[in-house]
Design brief:
little secondary structure; 0% strand; 82 residues; 1 helix; globular
Length: 82
């Protein structure tokens, strides 16, 4: 995805997802299938050793409070039947 192609992707409800901006700033629009309810949100730790993501970092990432509170994969709720 880039500013030039304005790429899009779809994440089905209940699936973990992540993104990282490689530029100084980024505009990210997230559409949901229902009203936003922060009390139902979950966060998987960005640096989880079980879910290996090769983040192209030059230093420490800038994370939101929600992402800072991310849990290891083994501590996350699992939803069956999705």
């Amino acid at each position: 995805m880039s500013g030039e192609n304005q790429g899009r992707f779809r994440v089905l409800a209940g699936f973990a997802h992540c993104f990282g901006a490689l530029s100084e700033s980024a505009y990210f629009l997230c559409r949901t299938n229902d009203y936003y309810a922060p009390e139902h949100g979950r966060s998987l730790a960005w640096n989880n050793p079980t879910v290996v993501v090769d983040w192209p970092l030059a230093g420490e990432p800038l994370l939101s409070a929600k992402d800072l509170a991310g849990m290891p994969l083994g501590a996350c709720e699992v939803f069956e039947g999705l």
